[in-house]
Amino acid sequence: MHDWTRLARSIKDWGRELGFDAIGITGTDLGEAERELNDWLAADCHGEMDYMATHGTKRSRPAELVPGTRAVIAARMNYRPPVAPAASAEVAAISRYALGRDYHKLLRARLQKLADRIVAEVGEFGYRVFTDSAPVMEVALAAKAGLGWRGKHTLLLSRQAGSWFFLGEIYVDLPLPPDAPATDHCGTCRACLDACPTDAFLAPYRLDARRCISYLTIELKGAIPEPLRPLLGNRIYGCDDCQDVCPWNREAPMTREPDFLPRHALDTATLIELFAWDEAEFNEKLAGSAIRRIGHERWLRNIAIALGNAPSLPELIAALEARREDSSALVREHVAWALNQHPHPPAPLPEKGGDGCSRTASAPVR
């Protein structure tokens, strides 16, 4: 007979050795979360994310997704890079989780190593590893496993790590003892709700994805609704506003994973720089990045909106004009909208005078 309590303690130790910041264990009962999910789907809050409803109760009943599942090992890994919000409206704002390499492969590989370590200890057993890759209710499972609580912004929150972390799971057929679920520590705070640029929160703990900037810039495949475009500001991939204002994130630790640090200066790149990337450059520079999955067309769509929201600078107008006849109808439509946000002719670009001084092209030489 195995000592399952001792094994559970060992799993947590092995997880920390592999770079996870916390490991918790829970059972498979997600009845309350299932009811909340069904209410959310019935209200069409998922928008075009049809996959949220496709798998039915497999999402909320782990043993239906992976027959034989008796427990879930939930893991948490910090990703917060040492990056401040975009300094100006001309700088692209990209959600911090996407600045480095795609987390899916890294977390899956680490979870597989953890599973291999368990196999070495107890012999072959039934399991399956997940990282945002299947119909799994990650936040609900992590909360039941004691890794944090669901904040009013619907993300998992931890008193030690805030919300800047990724989640992963291993469904197992082992009778591991569950940890105590986390308790809610949001109190009366509503900073995240009030900070949302698009008023996407219908109420605490309830998000209308159709208004969420992360949904609009990542999940939505077609045109972004015009009334929401000015509210996106310079955000071209995701949005961190609700996390930036959360008091629990003030002291959240920085990541220890080099792969989660910014690549290709994405934390400081200007909108004009990124808008100039052709498809080959987009695919090359964003290889191994979560951003690549939206494709070049939606990348340009998002940046066009941000350029429409930026100050009316001559070089900005020129960048938009260069894509006025883009081969994509989706891009052309958003470029046209952006140009209409700059109705007045911008001031001419300065040119160098013969004496090395700058002057405007229309200024007389004296």
From TrEMBL:
The active site is at residue 132. Its EC number is 1.17.99.6. The gene is queG. Residues 176-206 form the 4Fe-4S ferredoxin-type domain. Gene3D superfamilies: 3.30.70.20. It is found in: Cytoplasm. Keywords: 4Fe-4S, Cobalamin, Cobalt, Cytoplasm, Iron, Iron-sulfur, Metal-binding, Oxidoreductase, Queuosine biosynthesis, tRNA processing. Belongs to the QueG family. Its cofactor is cob(II)alamin; [4Fe-4S] cluster. GO terms for molecular function: 4 iron, 4 sulfur cluster binding; cobalamin binding; epoxyqueuosine reductase activity; metal ion binding. The keyword Oxidoreductase applies. It comes from the Bacteria. Binds 2 [4Fe-4S] clusters per monomer. The keyword Oxidoreductase applies. Catalyzes the conversion of epoxyqueuosine (oQ) to queuosine (Q), which is a hypermodified base found in the wobble positions of tRNA(Asp), tRNA(Asn), tRNA(His) and tRNA(Tyr). Residues 341-366 are annotated as: Disordered. [4Fe-4S] cluster 2 binds at residues 196, 212, 239, 242. [4Fe-4S] cluster 1 binds at residues 186, 189, 192, 246. Monomer. Pfam families: Fer4_16 (PF13484), QueG_DUF1730 (PF08331). It catalyses: epoxyqueuosine(34) in tRNA + AH2 = queuosine(34) in tRNA + A + H2O. This is Epoxyqueuosine reductase.
